[in-house]
Structure formats: structure tokens, C-alpha cells
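Lab notebook, page 48
Experiment: co-folding of the full assembly
Goal: obtain a model of how the components sit together before planning crosslinking
Operator: M.T.
Materials (sequences as entered):
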Amino acid sequence: MALEKDIYQQLEAVVGPENISGNQAVLWSYMYQPFGNTKGVWAEIMPEAVLLPQSTEEIVAIAKICNRHHIVFKAMSTGWGIHNLPGVKGAILLDLRRMNRILEIDEKNMFAVVEPHVICMQLQVEALRKGLNCHIIGAGSNTSVLASATSVVGYGPDGLSMGFSGRNLLGVEWVLPTGEVLKLGSLGSGAGWFSGDGPGPSLRGILRGWEGAWGGLGVITKCAVKLFHWNGPPKLEMKNVPPNYVLKEPLKYFRASLFNFPSLESLAEAAYKLGESEVGYFISRLSPAFVGLQMAGGQNYVNLWESGMPQQMLKYAFLFVIFANSEGEFAFQKKVLEQILEETGGQASPLAETEEMQELTATSVIKVDAVTRSCFRSAGGFNTSFGSMDTIDLAMNQIKAGTELKNRYIQKGVLMEDGGDNSATLVFDQGHLAYTEVLLMYDNHDDESTGGAMAYLADSNKACLNQALGLPIFQLSQVGTGKHGAFSPACGDYDKWQKKIKKAFDPNNTGDPTAYTEPE
Amino acid sequence: MLLELKDYLGDMKRCARCSICKWPPLAQMKSWRFSQNCPSVSRYNFHAYSGGGRMALGLALAEGKLDETDEELINIVYRCTACGACDSSCKYNSELEVLWPIYATRARLVGAGCFREEHGPIIESLRREDNPLSKPKAERGLWAQGLDVKDLSRGGQADVIYHAGCLYSFDPELSAVARDTVTLLRQAGVEVGIRGQQESCCGSMAFQLGFQGEFIKFAESNIDDWNALGARKVVTSCACGFGIMKAVYPLLGKKMKFQILHISQYLDELIREGRLQLSKKIPLRVTYHDPCNLGRNSEEYVPWKGIEKKVLGQLIIREPEKTVRRGWEGVYDPPRDVIRAVPGIKFVEMERIREYAWCCGAGGGVKTTIDDFALWTASERIAEAQSVGAEAIVTACSWCERNLKDAVSAQGNRMQVLDIVELVKQAR
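Observation: model returned without errors.
Model output:
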């Protein structure tokens, strides 16, 4: 079903002919979405057209046209993953690429106002110049700041010191699926961007709750996010050559270490203590496979893995980074860390102690720039399982359940052998919360491997439900209805509330419900 | 043939769709303003215009999902300078080929008889006149009239052959660079010869537009001629020619008995050896624009042929291991060293340099067919040069120079655009 000519013309009049396309080549390029796909790399449902709006006003006009003609729309920022595409036929896709400005960096009040297509790295380089830094999600600095703050999950390993994207969200400008503009937090009372919860309407729970509406409740066109103190230089110069760019000058009062523990329990104990003592810049549970893939690829990686060295040295390990403001603070944090390690039996791994690894680790910790290296490069297909945000203990239970379950599929040969425990990320918000994702690699062009990966994901979701391990981030590609339908009865029937919200905010159901929920 | 889409299926199918191809390597990003790396997606915005989008199009074409005759598809495919920035950025985290599938997609379209209307006359000119500029072949060597240089088209041999390239030969403004080059080489005591009227295009334009047959014809003919002339060195000012001679000519399997040098490398060598002395002060704040085909695209390319094997369950490894071309082995330091050797000069770097340099906009046939896109891309580079306070952009490629000069002129900008040879000549 192609868009009727007059509707296409109405949309074209809003964005201009250069910024709308229903051409097959353009559309097929958007259909390529391996991440989250249950089979291969192509999405099944093609949007009718792609639009490139440049302003809130244009999005309002598009939403109103869609409401008049009962056309579903879906917006994406950087568009990584199949959940960025409309999941219903006859829909249009809004690629927000042209809304890419950093509108403000307020040094004094430590926040930035961004449009949807500003990526974390763009914000970080501008923030550093002003002595500030921003939270970067675990997926990497190539992702949208706004998307994780307003619409999709939002945690990452620097969250130990810089929180969680959902918590860092301040004022918001939101185009509802109806085309109305809603301003949240202090922005709603004309008081600027500085607060997410007032003076003005505080609808953060409705806007995103735990994990966001995944683009199912309209388009967030601007938002403010908290920034944090940066103790390094205003510009970070690199040396070396790709793929190993590293900082030209080491950061002052910065130390990255890998610690190995005798058991998951002692690792968890250390994480609690570190959180409580409010030390550290970055913490990430790092699996032997993840570290190995950062260090090597191809046969070199195989040799490394088969040597058994990473498995032995990093069985229950995390990467912990101190980045202090002064010599005194650095010494204090080190002392706290040493004491916690002594209490929990943690041992520093010599792997991270070489100058080369210090340099590499410093760059990847600050820039979060090498995630695809460990995730997509090995087998092509990549996904994540578990990942509920809760306590450190729950994260440990997810790791145990994930390891046991995944090993069964590894033994079948359908997943990449990574020891089963390939989990990433740990504590954030100074230890108040934790999560972990259990990563899996598979060949997404091999039916048996893909089928195995999907079966594992289905089983891992069952495990989440049956063993009370919290809601997973993804439920295969059915982020929305499938997931909520399965988990809502075990979680206070939250889905009923979501459906009411969807109905109230989107009476014509024009905001694509696929990754969120159908209205009541 | 060199360019077969099927050879890149493995690369195209394993794109993670992470969009890293749209940015400079993330660790090298320095500001919001100059945080883009791909002229095509920056100008046209739809995902199809990015490296990842082009991989998707190549795959869709290979799988028969797209109609090769679709005019919009053809426009998308050719609205790309083939600068390779996407390729360098992608290889920051992977070993996938991005640029070569772009070339192969073009070859696939050409094979189906589908290309832009403007390409017809270019190829026709290459066939008739041995240049893509519709200039008479007979006038090719006129730039050298009156110079004390051996014209090998009249016979004889030379230790060093200077290959001026098409634009330096025919562009009335730029041919002074070719003259200056010969003068400088002669002053340095180099026994240099030119091929005069018999010099022909390197074939770069044909290759980049996807006309592989035409390209191979020019490449083989050049290799044969240079071998026959007994040259020890072939020195060229044409960065596009240099890139193609270094990275693609060797793939034809013909023995090349000569060393290929870009003029910036040779000048650097001559200055270091004291054979060229720069004594005149030039009090100018300059920056250097890395031509894509002198930089990242001149790095050796080894097409991978082998088998993919699964180990550790589903981990895919290649046998033999792939030689990964990440773009950092291009020619970056010699031109910078030449600039620094000029007395009085103040050299400043732009934000996007070396393997992640922003393209000038002229490559991939864009300057001759989609000039507004070429000029827009150049204007971004000029803005970047201005942002570091440069009074002049020095470059080492005729197409970059032409395009940057045109953009400066269209803007009424006071930025000077200098060829590296011009700068050296002024400093003598």
C-alpha cells in the first residue's frame, strides 16, 4: 500500500521535496536491521515513506496529517536496531537526523539541551571544553543522547559516577502522537530546562518509566540532560593509529584496574561496598570473552581464548576506574579500594597493569568507542539477554542463570563459545542500582545458529519470569506487546496502565504501538 | 574483473548498522561542528547515502531486491565522492570492506548499462582522447612548451618520468603547477622526462565510476609504457592517479618495474637530501588538506580470497587472515614535512586529518557531474580551515585544488588555495 498521492504531497509540503522519499532504494536501506532481527538482516515490514523533519513545528504538522488520515508514524534517531522501524504496514518513518543541534550547554547549572540526533560523543567533546562530561550508555558513544534519556533504557558503565540516562533527564519538549506539544519539568512552567520534575508537570514516569516507550508515544524533540564535573583537559588528543587510538597524555589521577574475585558473591560484595563508599568513575563486569575480543580478533583471538589465560584471570572480574580530582582524593580512593579488595578477596589482574593496556583502557573508558568490536565482529549476529535494573544481587543471579542456560546452547554449537558468562556492566548511580546484560554472539546468516539464538532468548525470558529475575531488555524483537503481555501479570499488571496511558495520549493510535503497547 | 559485488557479500551482510561509518573515528572527534566524516550523508541525509546504507543497497542489489534501472538508485550510488572515510571509520572496530563494495555496486550498475547521463561523454572522451575532460589528445603536452625537459613521446628514455595527470595538463590555471614541478625537479638535478602528447589518463575516473574495462585498458597501457621506457621512478602530481597506481594497479598482476611516487614524497626526499633548498620566507598561516587518494585510499589493498571457517561454535575466522586496510598507511607526513620546511610558515592542523580527513568533494566523478555537491563539500572544508585561523589551504591534488578554488571563488572568500608545488616554488 503506497501512500495516497495527496497525503504524500501534504507531507512533502511540510518537509520539502528533498526530505521525503518513498523510493525503493531509500526504503531498502532502512530495512537493513540486523540487531534485534529474528532472522537475517532485513526487516519484514517496509515503511511507506521516510521523512527528514528539521523542527518541532514540522513534526507537529506531520503528526496532525497522520491523525487526520490514520497513518501510523515512528521516529528514530541514530536508528540502531529493528525496534527503530515501524512494525505495522502503511506507516511512515521519521528519521530525525536533521535535528542534530546541541542547543545549549549551561556550565553553571551543569546541563545540556540537545536535539534527537546529537550523539554522546558530540556532546562529550563540547562538554569537556567547559569542564563537564556526560553519561554514555553501554552501547557506545555513537548513540543518541536524547534517545536513551527519554525513550530507551539508558545505562552504561560510567553510570557509577554519572548516573542513569533516565535519571539524568531534565526538561523535555515532547510532540504527542496527536501533534500537541507538551513541555515537561521546569520547561513546562516557563522556568527553563533545569529540572525534570518541576516547577511544571512531572511526567517522567509516563514518558519513560523504567525503560521508555521505544518511540510509541510520539516524538521527543528536545531534552535537557545533566552533565557532570570533568577533571581532565578540555581536549583529548590521541596518538597511535587505528584501531588503537589512545590518549596522547595520560589523565591525571586516573587508574584503570581489572580485579578478579574468588566467586560471584565476593565480586558482588565488593561492588556493594564500592557503591556505598561512593568512589570510582567507571565499573564494568567484564567477561573473559569481552576483554579478549577487545584485545584481539580472528585467529589471534582464538589463540588467546584457547590459551585459557583470560578465562583463568578474569573468571569473576570487573574493570574499575578511579578518576579523582586531586592527588589527595586519588590516594583516598585507592586506599578505600585496597581495603575493599582486602575484605572481599579481590586481586588485581596483571592484564590491566601494562602501560599499553592502561592507555587502551583509558581511551575506551572515557570514549566508550569500541563496543561493536566486542559484540558484532566475531559472528555477525549479536543480542543481549536479561538486563533488568535492580540490585547487585539480582544482577549476579542473572549472570548465574544466563551462564547455565547459555552453556546449554553453546554445547549445541549454535552460539559462540564465550564461556557462557559473557555479561557486561554492573553498578550505577553510586551503587544504588545495578544491572547486567548477558551477551550472545551467533551467525545471523546461519539458520541453525539464528534459530538457536532465538530459542535461547525465549528460554532466557522464561527464566526471567520463572526465577523472578526481572524484565529483560529485549524479548526477541518483540520489545513491546510481546514482552509486556508476558511479564505484566507477574508485575502488578502494569500493562493495563500502559494501555490506558497509550489511549489517553494517543487516541487514534498513530504513534507506532509495536515496540510499546496497544491502547486499551 | 576487479569489481564483483558477490566478492563483498560477506562484508555487506555483516554490517552492524551501528552508524560509526557516519562519523570520524569516535576517539578522534573534536567538536560538534566538524563531527561528520561523510559528505554524502551529510548533504543528502537519508541513510542510503551513508557507508552502511550503501552496503545495504549493494546487498539488496545482489539479492535482486532492487531494480538497477531505478533513476533514484543511480543518483544515490553516484552522489558519493568515494572518499573512503566510511571505510576508515568502520575499520576502527571491524575488518569489513565498505569502500570496495561501493565501487563494486557502481560496476554492477555499469554492467547493467545503468549510469548517469553525464558519464557517457566522460567515458567517450576517455576512449577518444585519453582524458575524461573532453580535451583534444593532441594538446596534452602543451603545458610543457618551452621547458627544458625530455619529451619521451619523441623517443629516448628517462630515469624519472613525470606524469602530470589530466587536470594539471589541461586546466589553464593548474598547468602552471606541472610546469613548476618540472622546473623544481630540474633545479634539483633530476633527469626527468615527460610523455608529452602520449601521456594518458591513469584510469582513476573510469574505475571510480565503475567502468572497469576502461580502467583496465588505461592501467595496463600505462604499466607497459612505463616499463618499456625503463623508468626507475614514476612521479605524479595527480593524487587520484597516485592512489589508483598504488592501490589498484598492482591487482592487475602485471609486473611494475618502477617505483611510484607522489610529488609531495619526492619533494620531501629532495629537500631532505639538500638538493632543493628553500630559503625565501613565506609568512603565512597555512593548513593542509589531505587528498583522499593520496591519503587513506593509496594504502595497499589486498583483496581477501579464502574460506570462512567457524571455530569456538560460531566465531567466524578467515583463512588466510585478512590484511586489513585501515587507511593510516597513506601519504600523510611527506607533504606536512615539505610545508614545515618552508621558512616563515606557520602550519596548523584542521580537526579532521589523515585517515579521517574530510573529503574536498571532487572525487568519484562528483566534480564533473554533480558540481553543487562538490562545492558544498568544499565549503565545509574551507570553513574548517577558517576555524583554525588558516590563511591558506595547501593541498597536493589537482581535483582538490580545482574544487577548493572554485568554492572559494563562489563564496567570495579570501582563503588562498595553494598546491604544495606552488608553495615550494614560492619558497625558492
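Interpretation: The mean pLDDT of chain B is 97.
Next step: discuss with group before ordering constructs.
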